[in-house]
Structures are given as structure tokens and as C-alpha cells.
Amino acid sequence: MSNEYPLQYDVVVVGAGNAALCAGISAKEEGANVLILERGPQHKRGGNSFFTDGAIRTAFQNLDDIREIIPEMTDEEAARIQIPIYHAEDFYNDLMRVTGGKSDPQLAKYMTGQSTQVVKWMQRNGVIFELNENQSFEKDGILTFWGNLPLKTQNKGVGLIEQLNKRAEELGIDIWYQSRAVKLVEENNQITAIQIEQPDGVVTVRTGSVILACGGFEANKTMRARHLGSEWNAAIVRGTEYNTGDGLMMALDIGAQPYGDWAGCHSIGTDCKAPEVGDFSKPGDIYKKSSFPLGLLINKEGKRFVDEGADFRNYTYAKYGREVLKQPGGMAYQIFDAQVYPLLRKEYLIEEATFVKADTIEELADMLEVDKTQFLQTIREFNQAVQEGAYNPTVKDGKGTAGITPPKSNWALRLEEGPFYAYPVTCGITFTFGGIHVNTHGEVLGKEGTPIPGLYAAGEMVGGLFYDNYPGGSGLMSGAVFGKAAGASASRYVREKTQSAASQ
Predict the structure, then answer these.
(1) What string of H, E and C letters represents the secondary structure of 145-179?
(2) Are residues 332 and 389 both part of a single domain?
(3) Other C-beta atoms within 10 Å of 1: how many?
(4) 301, 326 in Cβ contact below 8 A?
(5) InterPro entries, per this entry (predicted)?
(6) Which pLDDT value is given to residue 282?
(7) Is residue 313 located within the same domain as residue 392?
(8) CA–CA separation, 343 vs 341, rounded Å?
């Protein structure tokens, strides 16, 4: 392979996950000649998107919006589902609520306002959506959805990546595997080329623009320790091993503005026996454990440490992972009884799930690495604190506790019906919140706040959206929205530059 390629690509996209593929497809739709770079081999393509369960948060005006996205839904099926309407303003308010009002208002309004049209654009480009039944409960023959997350991609993240790659192939987009971008090249203060490390050596590809969409630094232990803290060395990496901050470092090296919550990340409670990095042979987010609002979280000391029922799981799970990491041994147990066991999400029922089961709570305590006396006291105090009220897992039912700390604000049932179950969980890091500053066109901003000509970013690299916490399903939506915007902007930039040069 030669060390120099001729100028043959209008747009080079770094990364091959949801954001990158949406960027490449969008740029191609605008007429650009596009190259996508995947650092891993073909059988490990797709970045973190490959490991998601495919849930994607989007606004919708009515059920007709959902049916346009899922055209296979029949009238009979539509009559048996109940989905609360979720306007763009609701999405925006949820994002602002869970981030404590810190999310960049311009970026937040753009993502939430574009979400419906972008999901429809994805569907037109071959992405198949279906109802996210993990976010529903059935009662009297009606499937009632909760948490404003009724959509997911068919066959989870695996299906999303397959479908987007199929569309990229149909459009004639080139994809290079085992191609790690290592350096952006500038001439006259604009991007003109990119250096790529391949098995046979480093090559330089000249290009009109570059879109960085290759993830955060969650798989880089050195950067995790520096920005998040040394305790994060113990966290399991839930996704790809290739998200080591390459794109962030390349952008910062040429003057991009760091932006957002560099000390924060998306992390969840995940099975203690989960692999240290994402296993491409067992994708689909199978190790997460997200039914904790229905039970109790108890550490090795036998104590509770969070309000399990503070909100629906998709508004708390991304911050409770770090709370588990803070506990002795970096782990805790999710405890359930027979009353709620039938309501647990599917990942609790698969053969990979680690758990212990006992007929009595005393027997369960004997099987766990806990302070048994304190564990049993915690259960007794919790049971005594549970207030009367109607239990309803489809809404925040207000059925809580009184007189204990932390409280359980919703879905509090006495833990008293055997058999009892304990699922050991640790912290799994998903993605980092810190990124670089982009505008709503996907343009990367330099330290003076002006765009760096020819440089764009999308996906996890967009800083300023998520702080401390995250509304479930927003990551895929952010990737698609800013990927589509970056692709269109990069293509237009190259076209206008070419037209300007031709006219001179």
C-alpha cells in the first residue's frame, strides 16, 4: 500500500458506529464521496452502538408518528397499546431535569427538536424499528408503556449496525477496517488530510473534510484515571475496547475546544461476571441489570445506599452505576422477592445472569458476602417503613417509605414473599460525557468559539449534552441527530469550497 493517496474523498468519517454511519449516509445523500474508517476488524465493527439494546428516545406527536416509524403495526395492535404522547418540549425538559439544567440549551433544543424527523429519516434509510416492550407492562390485555422510551431498533444494536452498513453499501460508501486515524493534517488553517495507521503502515489520505465520530475515552484506563478518578480502573467496559479517546486527542491537538462534563460518564449496574470489555460474540447489552426500582440495592455492609424508586430506571440507571462503584468491593446486590420477580426485565432470566435464590431471607443472607445482621436489620426496617397505597409500576405511584434514609420514593413493596433473589452487580462504564464543542451544524469549534474549517464531530464526542446523568435512549438519538447534521454540513462545505475554487 502506498504512503500517499490522491485527493479522492470529499468526506472522511472516523468511526463506524451509529453516529458515524449516519454521518456517512447523510454526506453521501448530499453528493459527497465518502470514506468511513473503522479501527477494529470487520467482525468487531460498530463501536458502542453494537452493544446497545437499541432503545432510542424520540419525541412524537401522536400514535401516527409511531406507526410511520413502525409501518408494520396493524390497527388491531395499535388498539392494544397505550403510549403517552412525548413532545419535543417534554424530551427537552427531561434532559434538563436529569442534568440539573446543565445541558447546553442550544444543543439540547436541537437534538430534541430534530429527534422525530431524524428517526423517520433513519427508517427511510433502512433502519427497522419495533416497540420496546422492555419498557411496558401488560394489564387487562393492554400494553402500557412507561418512561417515554417506546422505540427500539430491530435486533438491538446488532441490527442497527447491520442495517446502517447495508445502506452504506447500497450508497457506495467505502469502509476501511483495521484503520485507526491518528492525526489530522491542516494547511492554511483548514483540514486537508488525515493520517491512518493500518497493519501495513501509516497512510495519508487527502480529503476535503473530516467527521470525528469515534467515541469517548471510556476504554482508556489512563484517561479514565486522569479525568474520572483512579477508582474507575476497576470498572467494566461495557462496549468496544477501541474507544480510547483517539478522536478527542486529534481534535484537541489542532485547537478544538474541550467541552462538557469531563469528570462524568454513563455507567450502570452490570452483572459481576460480565467480561472486562464488550464481548462481540454476546452483544445486545445482556449483562446490564436495570430492574432495581422494583427491589432493593444493598451493599456488602448490609446497607442500602440509594433511593431505588427515585424515578423510572431510564432516568437513574446512568448515575447509579457510579454509586455501586463507591461501595465496598465496588459491588452490591439487587434484592427481589416473588411479588416482583415476574416483572423483571429479560436480562434477569437469561443463562448468563448471575444470581442466588433462597426460600427465606435468612437463607439468602447466608449465601451472600454481606454482614448478615445488618442485612436482615435493613430488610426489617425497610418493611416497617413501607407505606400503604396502590402499587403501579407503569407510573410513579408514590407508594414509598417513611422514616428511613435513603427513602424509597415509589414502588415500595414489603420484601416478604419467597422465594427471594439476589443479583450481584458491579459498575460498568458505557461512555464518557466530556467531549469537544460543536454547534448545531456539527462543526467543531476552536478556542475562540469559531468553527475549525473542515472539521466536524458527532456521537459521544459531542460535549455539553450530558452532565452527571442521562435520559435513557438519548445516546443513540444524539448520535443520529448530530451525525446527520455533520454529514450534511461537511458535504456542503466541500461542495462550496470546490465551487469557489472553480470560479476563481
Answers:
(1) ECCCCCEEECCHHHHHHHHHHHHHHHHCCEEECCC
(2) yes
(3) 9
(4) no
(5) FAD-dep_OxRdtase_2_FAD-bd, FAD-oxidoreductase_2, FAD/NAD-bd_sf, Succ_DH/fumarate_Rdtase_cat_sf
(6) 81
(7) yes
(8) 5
CA–CA gap between residue 449 and residue 442 (Å, rounded): 13
DSSP 3-state assignment of 385?
Answer: helix
Tens digits of residue pLDDT in 23-76: 999 999 999 999 999 999 999 999 999 999 999 999 999 999 999 999 999 999
Residues 280, 173 share a domain: no
Look-up: residue for cell 462496549? Answer: 239
Considering only CA atoms, which of 77, 69, 71, 220 is closest in space to residue 151? Answer: 69
Q: Name the one residue in this structure whose C-alpha cell is 493500518.
A: 198
Question: Percent helix, strand and coil across the chain, each rounded to 5?
Answer: 35, 25, 40
State the CATH number of the domain containing residue 389.
3.90.700.10
Do 313 and 360 have their domain in common?
yes
Residues 338 and 352 in one domain: yes
Q: Measured between alpha carbons, how far is 399 from 389 in angstroms, rounded to an integer? A: 5
Residues 170 and 307 in one domain: no
Q: Return the C-alpha cell found at 497.
A: 469550497
Local structure of 483: helix, strand or coil: helix
For residues 211 and 169, state if they share a domain. Answer: yes
Q: Are strands 180-187 and 451-457 parallel, antiparallel or unpaired?
A: unpaired
Whose cell is 493520517? That residue is: 195
Task: Say whether both 255 and 280 belong to one domain.
Answer: no
**Cβ atoms 295, 425 nearer than 8 A:** no
Which domain range does residue 325 map to? 266-428
Question: Within the chain, what is the greatest distance between any pair of CA atoms?
Answer: 84
pLDDT at 4 over 70: no
